[in-house]
Amino acid sequence: MSGKETGNLLKVEDGSLRFHTLIGTGGIGTGSFFLLQGDHTLGREESRGGKFLDRRDYCKLHILCHYLKSLLGSRFSVLPIGRVGEDEAGARLIAEMREAELDLRYVGTLSEKSTLYSFCFLYPDGSGGNMTTEDSASGEVTAECVATALPEFSRAGKRGIALAVPEVPLEAREKLLELGTQYGLFRVASFASGEMERVCRSGLLEKVDLLALNQDEARCLAEIGDGIAGQQAIADGAITSLGRRYPHLLLSVTAGAAGSWSWDGRQLLHVPAIPVPVATTGGAGDAHLAGVIAGLAADLPLATAHRLGVVLAAASVTSPHTIRKGITRRNLADLAIRGNMRDEALLSLFR
Predict the structure, then answer these.
(1) CATH code at position 170
(2) Which residue spans within the chain are E strands per DSSP?
(3) Enclosing domain of residue 157
(4) How far is CA 176 from the centre of its chain?
(5) Cβ atoms of residues 175 and 207 within 8 Å
(6) Mean pLDDT for the stretch of residues 235-243
(7) To bridge 33 with a disulfide, which of 42, 55, 69, 304 should be the other Cys (CB 3.0-4.6 Å)?
């Protein structure tokens, strides 16, 4: 489906939102998809044929902000902090974010840098990876850029969410979490696998309330080698490791078709992935996190927010693009039923 969502996708009563503002920083960019021949893993010095696919790719901050605004509607303000290039890609992304009614006061355009670009490679079985430019406009998002939004942090206070995700320098994300801590916002973050050692060493997780991990990031945190353990053991290991050091921390761990886990400080919950036809898995983890955040913003317990993340991820993977536009409340309700979810608080969001 395509087109613009109308209103808010979740049925949330007036005045029942726990949070009304999200301020976030992370990558804003675009990319292309390349389908490789053969399912065997690409070798270090291998040449491989393939073809480009007609798919639209978006970066983390854009995906999260789009879904959060679509889910929660006009009562929820979304302020991304980022940079794009003064190029065709940047202009298109700005237009799409404006159409989604995001507040773009803190998204700047740079003439000397190009918009963040990601090259995604896919295997015929749907798995794959991506490579992202480091010298893009997103790389120019500094701590000073984030600090310009200080009045927004002050206004939001305990009714706000501070979101820090990759594809901008870690220093900018550290500043955002620092301001979130200073003004009492609920702090959400994810980090790339290669950043985990530095993040843990720096104590930055003391400034995070909800940490989102994929399987590889969880493996790094749990210090589990490749091929040594299954997804459940990886989730258990990450939660055991983090729970001991950061008892305040909520966790969300995704593992594709193997499902996802959440930890609320007491209970480890596993929710299977909903069986749907998969067009691409790109953006599914970001859609999952957006669902979790939206559920918490609607004052739902983490277990219900987790299930909402699973539903939104299922909607995401049925689209060839990393943002699925045109989702309806009926789409989400049908997916919850297909996933055999009997969480009444969740189902009430779609009525």
Answers:
(1) 3.40.1190.20
(2) 21-25, 29-36, 50-58, 77-85, 107-110, 116-122, 128-132, 160-164, 186-190, 210-214, 250-254, 260-263, 268-271
(3) 21-27+63-84+142-350
(4) 16
(5) no
(6) 81
(7) 55
